[in-house]
Amino acid sequence: MAYHFIALAIFLPMILGSTANRNVTTESLVRAANYPIETHTVTTSDGYILTLHRIPHSSRLSQSEPGKVVLIQHGLLCSSSDFVVLGKEKGLAYLLSELGFDVWLGNARGNYYSRKHISLKPSSSKFWDFSWHEIAIIDMPTMIDYIRSVTGVQKITYIGHSQGTTGFFILNSLKPEYNDVFESAHMLSPVAYMSHITAPLLTIPAALLGNSLVSLPLDLLGNAEFNPSKSLMDIVASVLCNKERPNYELCSNPLFLAAGFDEDTVDPAILELVKQSTPSGASTGQFKHYMQLYNSAKFCQFDHGPIKNLAKYRSLTPPDYPIEKVRAPMYMYYSDNDILAAIEDVEKLISKLSTVRQAYRIPVKTFDHLGQILIFDCGDIDNVIRTETLVKRYNYPYEEHTVQTEDGYILKIHRIPNSNSGQVAFLMHGLQASSSDWCISDPQNSLAYILADAGFDVWMGNSRGNTYSRHHIKYNPNGLFKEKFWNFSWHEIGTFDVPAMIDYVRSKTGVEQVTYFGHSQGTTAFFVMSSKRPEYNKMIEAAHLLAPVVFLGNATNRFLRFLGPILGNLELLQSVLGSNELKPGKIMMAGLCNLVCPKNDLILYQNSMFVISGFTNETVNKTLIPDIMCTTPAGASTNQPIHYAQNYDAKGHFREFDHGQSDNLKAYNSPNPPDYPLENIDVPMFFYYSAIDNLSTEKDVLFLSEKCPTTVGVTKIESRGFDHLAFMYTDNLGIKLHKIIMANVASMQ
User: Fold this and answer.
1) How deeply is 242 buried, as exposed, middle or buried, from its count of CB atoms within 10 A (0-12, 13-18, 19+)?
2) Model pTM?
3) Has residue 320 got a pLDDT over 90?
4) What is the DSSP string of 606-633?
5) What separation, in Å, do the N-terminal and C-terminal C-alpha atoms of the chain show?
6) DSSP E strand stretches across 467-585
7) Which terminus of the chain is more exposed, N or C, with fewer CB under 10 A?
8) Is the preceding omega at residue 633 within 30 degrees of 0, hence cis?
9) What is the pLDDT of residues 247-272, one digit of tens each?
10) Smallest Cα–Cα separation from 289: which of 133, 160, 393, 161?
């Protein structure tokens, strides 16, 4: 499961090599990915000629969405290539393009693409007489002004990593008029205060030379252009590296020595990319300036020494940047294991900024400054984003429980306990989802937390085959008999999984009844259980059914429409959906999306959950997408969507699985599968549906509610853009829904 969108919010490629003899360029990489590419040049007020690379629209669309323009600015020793080198499935620039952005990639003075000047040559020391201060106050506004002029937009989105964040803070503090230019700014590994860094390539020379950094020996960092001496490299390597480490070759790379790396997180395939992509360059002034910040514990301008400081600043010491003037909307992303953006320094920075919308501390202990290139798949890390980390993030208590079904599946149930409560809530997720969905947002927007705050003992189920329930007493989901493990649809989830979990919850809590909450497939499973095993009706106080999926005759979902005509072709179905486990191939997913994804919706089409359910950009809380993309798709069998497609094809029927006439005769004594006996259901039910949901349509929901004599209430959500997944992933729009749900809950008590 690719951690695709974390590239947008967290994972930023940083790959270093010599600036000479570069074989791979941004242009060649983008063209190889079949995306359009433009190269623009702009001249700064002090004569540097900078290159901007532009991907004006995605490979699937003829143009970007109006007004959606993003500038991505690289870190120290990096370039625009870093955002495309991982390919179209993981490269940040491509992901943004697929979301409808007009993507601009900056290149700061001195890097591979910006080594020209109207009068100076890189061989001259005067060419290199700058630090990131000049990049911030001259390069960045020059590029931003040019982008706005070409595109005609008033506001842009900004994404910066490392030095790209330093420049943003300086620009907006010294030229505060630029604050109004940014729709939002995303700071990845933000670097401003540096007194707690532990990066030896900076701290060792800084500690050795103290305040004499202005006159660092030329052979230590290089003459004008950064080119560290072998002696310095050897000292730093002795701290970080030893020859027994599997990736010792990285110790010859200044970027890895500057930022640190963990060999356990290094993907071997990345090493080859490091060799092929050899971007950039920097001045010694950039490194000296960072060392000065480390020594001074301040975020201040360059220290030229007392005499020059007096002439330049009218002060013996350089002035602090007025960081309080930065007022653009910002989102911060940082991690515990980052030796260049230390937790203490980042949190000090955040405390001084008044417009930080969210500070996202990545809950992965191995994540470091270069984890953003070395870890780009959820599968590369154990326990990256799990229900436990989500719940503990907001300081709620957490428990994990295990239950075995009658047919041998071992399921996990996650709990936010309230032992003193007589009110028990059981929450069941949708297709390809998990317990994580109920607690992925903040306490004001996640139903699990809202219920916990209301005094409920909250239990969140996980159906067979998902991330948490991939065990069986006999069969392995990836083993020799995997087809037996995956031989189920949501019928078995309703007849075995949900009853087993409800029995366990009632046993542990001692209550007679639980309040049931289901989303999508979680509602389907409820209707299967309550109709086929009616003894469970008395165990449910009330059922709250979000985006209920039962009758599908009026569904406009394009995925179901695509599957309908090929239901009889098992070989073709398996090529599309995967054999046994629902795992469509990447090439097939891209082609499938071209058929089923609305062109104006720009869904995250590489995630099969979005393709199946449909997705509208405007209602999903964008800050949740890193977590969403790492927790979904959580796993399912191929038979689950097939069963839905069969019911879509059956128009007006809610039927058991169709095995084909011959096998149906054996299973049901009938050539056709039987309808579920909905008349058996005797549970007070509340329905919640959206006006634009293409799976749970208004006609089908109303038809279902009218067939159920114990329907208590039906709520229609008419907010613009509120779709099937918005029930789980929206932000402020969900607050209204949750208030209605909680009022209905209270009415039953």
Assistant:
1) exposed
2) 0.61
3) yes
4) TSHHHHHH---GGGB-GGGHHHHHHH-S
5) 41
6) 471-472, 514-519, 540-546
7) C
8) yes
9) 444 454 544 554 455 554 444 554 55
10) 133
pLDDT of residue 589: 53
Spell out the SS3 assignment of 44-105: CCCCEEEEEEEECCCCCCCCCCCCCEEEEECCCCCCHHHHCCCCCCCCHHHHHHHCCCEEEE
CA distance 368 to 416: 30
Pair 42, 576: CB distance under 8 Å: no
**Amino acid identity for residue 426 in this structure:** F
Sign of CA dihedral 479, 483, 484, 489: positive
Task: For residue range 296-307, list pLDDT tens digits in order.
Answer: 999 999 999 999
pLDDT band for position 631 (cuts 50, 70, 90) = confident
The three-state secondary structure class of 374 is: helix
Check: CB of residue 88 under 8 Å from CB of residue 33.
yes
Contacts with 249 (C-beta within 8 Å, 6 or more apart), sequence order: 271
Is 161 assigned a catalytic role?
A: no
The pLDDT of residue 269: 53
The pLDDT confidence band at residue 127, using thresholds 50, 70 and 90, is: very high
Structure tokens at 173: 């503090």
User: Is the Cβ–Cβ distance between 108 and 135 less than 8 Å?
Assistant: yes
Place of tokens 């991907």: 55
> Degrees (nearest 5) of the Cα angle 92, 93, 99?
90
Count of CB atoms within 10 A of residue 651's CB?
11
Distances (CA, A) of 227 to 219, 221, 254, 260: 8, 5, 9, 18
Average pLDDT over residues 327-356: 91
**DSSP state for residue 673 in the 8-state scheme:** P
Which of 186, 369, 519, 643 does the annotation list as catalytic? 369
Structure tokens at 170: 């300086």
**In terms of pLDDT, which residue wins out, 501 or 254?**
501
* Per-residue DSSP letter, 397: -
Cβ partners under 8 Å of residue 221, min gap 6:
205, 227, 228, 229, 232, 284, 287, 288
| Residue 224 to residue 320: CA distance in whole angstroms | 25
Give the closest residue to 205 by CA, choosing from 238, 233, 240.
233
Residue 439: count other Cβ atoms within 10 Å of its Cβ: 28
Distance CA 224, CA 126 (A): 8
CB 299 within 8 A of CB 323: yes
Q: Which amino acid is at 559?
A: F
Q: Per-residue pLDDT for 375 more than 60?
A: no
d(Cα 543, Cα 550) in Å, to the nearest integer?
15
Q: Do residues 425 and 515 touch, judged by C-beta distance below 8 A?
A: yes
Q: What is the pLDDT of residues 192-245, one digit of tens each?
A: 999 998 877 777 777 766 554 545 544 555 567 866 544 444 554 555 555 554
β partners of residue 377: 2
pLDDT attached to residue 261: 52
Is there a contact between 64 and 56 (Cβ–Cβ < 8 Å)? Answer: yes
CA separation for the pair 22, 17 (Å, rounded): 9
pLDDT digit string, tens, across residues 542-553: 999 999 999 999
Residue indicated by tokens 């609305």: 598
Lowest-confidence segment of 212-221, 374-383, 728-737 by average pLDDT: 374-383
In sequence order, what are the beta bridge partners of 402?
412
Task: Enumerate domains of the chain plus CATH numbers.
Answer: 6-14+27-193+321-380 (3.40.50.1820), 200-313 (no CATH), 387-747 (3.40.50.1820)
Report DSSP state, residue 210: G
* Owner of token pair 């011959």: 662
Cα–Cα distance measured from residue 385 to residue 364, given in angstroms and rounded to the nearest whole number: 8
Task: Identify each DSSP E strand in 83-181 by its residue range.
Answer: 102-105, 116-117, 156-161
666 and 657 Cβ atoms separated by less than 8 Å: no
40 is catalytic: no
**Selected catalytic residue, list 162, 189, 434, 613:** 162
